[in-house]
Amino acid sequence: MKNDLPVSFAGLSGPAGFLRSSEPLSLSPGPAPATSLLEEAADLLVVHLDFAAALDRCERGCESLASDPDSESSAEVKCSLCIVGIQALAEMNRWREVLSWVLQYYHVPERLPPKILELCILLYSTVKEPHVMLEVDSYWLRDLTNQSLPSYGTLMKLHLLHVLLPLGQFVEAEELVQGCEAFNKEQQLEALRTINERRCQWVQQEETQSGPEEQPATAREKLLGSVSRKLLTILTVLRRALGSMSSHFCSSPYKKTLLAALIVCLVVVRLDPAAPTSLPFLYRLVQLCHQAWVAVFSPLYRPPLQD
């Protein structure tokens, strides 16, 4: 008489609640200790919600099967123990340990049962870390023995939809579909159409995410351009004003006014330009005029000297 153990347990919260396998796992009568531990682990997981105890029973059951790993009944019980263990780890939020925990009993990815690989793909897809399964799936799908299994096509679709496409590996997905003998022509066309749709969505999402980053830069460039234009306008007005002042100062009436002021100053202070005592005052006056000239007229706007 066979026992039917559901691969997924209804009512679970957390990551394990999302795990769904394609069909229930039918078990042949196996070694009594391992089967008893399996039933106890399932009861602890579903009824008592004692996830740590359920995981402990699974580990003890897998260890008890180490002496006879190749028999069909032992393989089925071992697979069921690992399934219960996966859900127990997920319920304890220890999903990061799932893959390493399973591989300690199967050693290499190629030997993973299809149902365990399926649950691992769904688990790491649910927690948004599909890259964890990328290498494991590749090893499993390339194995010639696995390619003859009835569930090979199903796992190929899961790898495509839940691992390659979420990671943006569209070229690898196309090559995988085109070289997959498990897909007929119609399935290949449907898979390629799905890949193209996901590629378009990926591109649109990248454009949407990059848009807000470019907008502040554009606004900043506009602000700098506005400031530069205002500064250029101010400098142009200032240049024109200085040019007008320069033209005014160098005009003939201004020169005559300056000469008249100098003569009046000499008359008022009664200095004799030919007297030796007036030379220091005249020299100081010339220096002050020169300094005033340099301060008012920069080299850029200084008018040319006329004879």
From TrEMBL:
Source organism, top-level taxon: Eukaryota
Signal sequence, start to end: none
InterPro entries: Pex26 (IPR010797)
GO annotations of cellular component type: peroxisomal membrane
Pfam families, per database record: Pex26
Biological process, per Gene Ontology: protein import into peroxisome matrix; protein import into peroxisome membrane
Any GO molecular function: protein-containing complex binding
PANTHER family linked to this entry: PEROXISOME ASSEMBLY PROTEIN 26
Official protein name in the record: Peroxisomal biogenesis factor 26
Organism for this UniProt entry: Chelydra serpentina (Snapping turtle)
